[in-house]
Design brief:
By secondary structure, the chain is α+β, with helices and mostly antiparallel strands. It folds into 4 domains: 143 residues, Methyltransferase, Cobalt-precorrin-4 Transmethylase, Domain 2, CATH 3.30.950; 82 residues, no CATH class; 166 residues, 2-Layer Sandwich (Heat Shock Protein 90); 99 residues, Orthogonal Bundle (Arc Repressor Mutant, subunit A). The protein is 41% helix and 18% strand.
Length: 497
């Protein structure tokens, strides 16, 4: 959150989704009531160090770290906020005064603070605990709005969820924050902290939710819970009646994201681009990480309509079933984001595969205009949500396509040979994440371009090797590690042979 965005919030003033707290030397105790109300309503933003009338008074420098620590500790305390939640809190300095910014996403659960239920009305937090009608309406609204919240009481951690995916999520979160709370939680504690284990007050049963199954479930468990679950990735550039290439993805959302991004990387160019600081940026990844995340995060999973990403000659079209809040083209100037699956959204943000609500869409517009010769994307809100990314056809001239095909044929044999020769060494070596240089040194290949083209890229595209920071493939902190399934299969084959 930058200074300009904070100033815009202050100009708007307190309302249903904005709250100011002075907190000059200590936390206002009612800040937790506001957090609870925002969670129960539609989310919101809290500024600490700002008076009710928008005056920036700042937080005492010697107290700000303690206030920040106290807030984080309290909202993760199950005796204070039920169920507890994980929120980010950022420090921002304006005119020499330090303030704290807190973003509270809407939750698909009903929260209590000090055993009281709060809801938001205009700029006030209302205690509705003793109003049976309002509490009942709140529970009904949550359950009817969020399919991800459906409870499956007979799903178990041991038999239906994959521990390797939970470990992977913990590792990804740690890449972006080496003090992330997940690093010190057991698998069950991690799932509970992300509200993936809930109690259904209507059936009076507790269990893992649909969100937990979609994120960590075995393929058979996902199929049992949602027989229609799939995402189609289609290349339709030459054969317009059928397709030139296709990947039907029916697995968990974590690996679905990786397969869809790999399909995009396989079939779309990534032209060279540097930002204002002369840093190399992958425009393709900036754009399509948002597209892919959107069709996984914001899909209405009760609908049998399959999500799709279709790459055509002059555009990419992404579609997913949707519960619309209006009908028509989204205008960025008055865009008001609304999460369809807030728990899945929050999870993807924690592992670095999604932006804060609204930021990703703004980045999509920004980078598409650069990637697509000044043309903006189209986002259409309807029963089927659609994203259209225009493509600059000059990137796909026939000569380039022919050259690419010829190159692929000429190098296929060399690629297969190189992969087979070094596969065993790399899979065993990378059971813990390794840098590119460490892998090259281990297999004794000094030529960087040969290693990249004939060994590293094929292993990444086939899913045998995974990125520790998948959304930033050129990051200097990038590490490569073996897909646990591939390592297990490889060892099994060796034992069999």
């Amino acid at each position: 959150m930058n200074i300009e965005q904070i100033q815009q919030i202050i100009v708007i003033g307190e309302n249903t989704s904005i709250e100011f707290k002075e907190c000059k030397t200590a936390l206002n105790k009612d800040v937790y009531e506001t957090v609870c109300a925002f969670l129960n309503r539609s989310g919101g933003e809290i500024l600490l160090g700002v008076t009710d009338n928008g005056e920036i008074v700042g937080i005492s420098p010697e107290r700000i770290e303690q206030i920040q620590k106290e807030f984080v500790t309290t909202i993760n305390n199950a005796n204070k906020l039920v169920p507890p939640t994980y929120l980010t809190i950022e420090q921002v300095a304006i005119d020499g005064r330090a303030i704290l910014y807190i973003y509270v996403p809407p939750s698909s659960q009903v929260h209590r603070v000090n055993n009281r239920i709060f809801d938001r009305n205009h700029d006030a937090d209302l205690d509705i605990t003793d109003n049976t009608s309002l509490v009942s309406q709140l529970y009904t609204r949550k359950q009817n709005t969020y399919t991800e919240n459906r409870v499956y009481p007979f799903v178990s951690l041991e038999n239906h969820l994959r521990s390797d995916l939970i470990a992977k999520a913990r590792r990804l979160a740690g890449v972006f924050n080496n003090n992330h709370p997940w690093l010190n939680l057991t698998d069950m504690e991690l799932l509970q902290s992300m509200q993936l284990y809930q109690h259904d007050v209507i059936s009076n049963q507790s269990g893992f939710t649909l969100a937990a199954i979609l994120l960590f479930g075995t393929d058979s468990t996902i199929l049992s819970a949602l027989p229609h679950h799939k995402t189609d990735a289609i290349l339709r550039r030459v054969n317009l009646e059928r397709y030139d290439d296709r990947d039907t993805v029916k697995t968990n959302l974590i690996e679905s994201y990786e397969r869809l991004m790999a399909f995009i990387a396989k079939h779309l160019p990534d032209p060279f681009y540097q930002d204002e600081s002369a840093n190399r940026i992958s425009l393709r990844d900036k754009i399509f990480r948002e597209v892919v995340a959107n069709i996984l995060i914001h899909r209405e999973y009760s609908s049998p309509y399959p999500a799709k990403i279709i790459i055509e000659r002059n555009q990419v079209v992404a579609e997913n079933s949707n519960r619309p809040h209006f009908h028509g083209v989204i205008n960025l100037a008055n865009f008001s984001p609304f999460p369809k699956n807030p728990i899945i959204s929050a999870f993807f943000r924690e592992i670095g595969r999604a932006e804060e609500l609204g930021s990703g869409v703004r980045n999509l517009f920004r980078y598409t205009k650069i990637y697509s010769a000044g043309i903006e994307p189209q986002l259409i809100e309807d029963n089927i949500f659609k994203i259209i990314i225009p493509l600059d056809e000059r990137l796909f001239m026939d000569g380039e396509l022919i050259t690419a095909q010829a190159t692929a044929q000429a190098t296929a044999q060399a690629t297969a040979q190189a992969e087979d020769e070094y596969l065993a060494q790399i899979l065993l070596f990378c059971h813990t994440p390794k840098t590119r240089d460490e892998i090259q040194e281990h297999i004794k290949i000094a030529h960087r371009e040969y290693f990249r083209k004939y060994i590293l890229q094929p292993l990444l595209l086939s899913g045998k090797l995974l990125l520790s920071i998948p959304d930033k493939p050129t990051s200097p902190k990038q590490r490569y590690y073996t897909n646990p399934r591939c390592l297990t299969n490889h060892i099994s084959k060796k034992v069999t042979n």
